[in-house]
Specification:
Immunoglobulin-like, 1 helix, 2 domains, about 0% helix, 6-stranded mixed β-sheet, 5-stranded mixed β-sheet
């Protein structure tokens, strides 16, 4: 039985004693044989929690991110999942025994102190299996990485407090979201670069807070090319990107297939619902 306290939605601040489930189960057991290779698809379905995932005694070999196959796999001990983030990775069972699948805890800001927790237990038992090797190279990088850039845009995430109501507001390019506002127009078949800047560190000067903002765009994926002006190695494309306070991230994306209106926003729902979203339109 799970005891759940009565609560009231008032400030939008998450309660300290959250329950964290895996596939709807509290602290489930996952079975694997020694040497067996499994593919795990993991998504953070929370409205604002962050998960910094690790598996005792094991590593993750990542093959896809946000639903898109990587062009180069990589192996890591931890994966950070802001709200809405997805990863697909392989896990190969080690020696017989029990191992904890956990979140190490993560501080995304004054209202985002996400505690460490044990999420599930991996039980390695049974007949020895033969591990499956994951190829390093899984495909070719997208052609748009070498294509001419038709437009460069500046996307600024800001926040603060309304002095009269003592309530937070969240903006993109100094504008709170309006559903009927015309957004950027992007020509079909072009490639653009967007510089995404989280200026919440500056909001401290105005009585605000400095916190992470996970940037998410609908319709198309993007590739990170620079962080704070320094080139970075990309293994694949994505559609959710955690941007730290004061950080500037350069991304490149193409718009090859669809016309129509869509949005981009912070994937922390409290931020999105209070204004941190903007429209754009892909036009012929």
């Amino acid at each position: 039985n799970i005891a759940i306290k009565d609560g009231v939605l008032a400030t939008g601040v998450a309660p300290a004693d959250q329950l964290q489930t895996v596939n709807g189960q509290l602290a489930p057991t996952i079975a694997i044989r020694p040497g067996e290779t499994q593919l795990w698809r993991v998504v953070n379905m929370g409205n604002e929690p962050y998960y910094k995932l690790s598996l005792d005694g094991h590593t993750f070999t990542v093959v896809a991110e946000d639903g898109s196959m990587l062009w180069e796999s990589y192996t890591t001990d931890t994966l950070l999942l802001p709200p809405g983030k997805r990863f697909e990775f392989t896990v190969t069972g080690g020696k017989a025994g029990s191992y904890v699948f956990r979140t190490q805890g993560y501080n995304s800001g004054p209202f985002g102190g996400w505690a460490a927790a044990e999420l599930a237990t991996l039980v390695v038992a049974g007949k020895q299996d033969t591990p499956r090797e994951v190829p390093v190279y899984l495909g070719e990088p997208p052609a748009y990485l070498a294509a001419p850039v038709a437009k460069r845009r500046y996307i600024r995430f800001s926040e603060g407090f309304n002095a009269d109501a003592n309530m937070p507001y969240f903006e993109i390019n100094k504008k709170v979201y309006q559903p009927l506002r015309n957004g950027a127009q992007i020509k079909l078949g072009t490639t653009e670069e967007w510089l995404i800047y989280n200026d919440s560190n500056l909001s401290l000067q105005e009585g605000g807070v400095a916190e992470d903002h996970p940037f998410h765009i609908h319709v198309n994926d993007f590739t990170v090319t620079e962080i704070d002006g320094k080139p970075v190695k990309a293994y694949g494309s994505q559609d959710v990107l955690n941007v730290l306070p004061g950080q500037k991230v350069l991304v490149r994306m193409a718009f090859p297939d669809f016309v129509g209106k869509s949005v981009f926003h912070c994937h922390i729902l409290f931020h999105e619902d209070n204004g941190m979203m903007a429209n754009f339109e892909i036009v012929p």
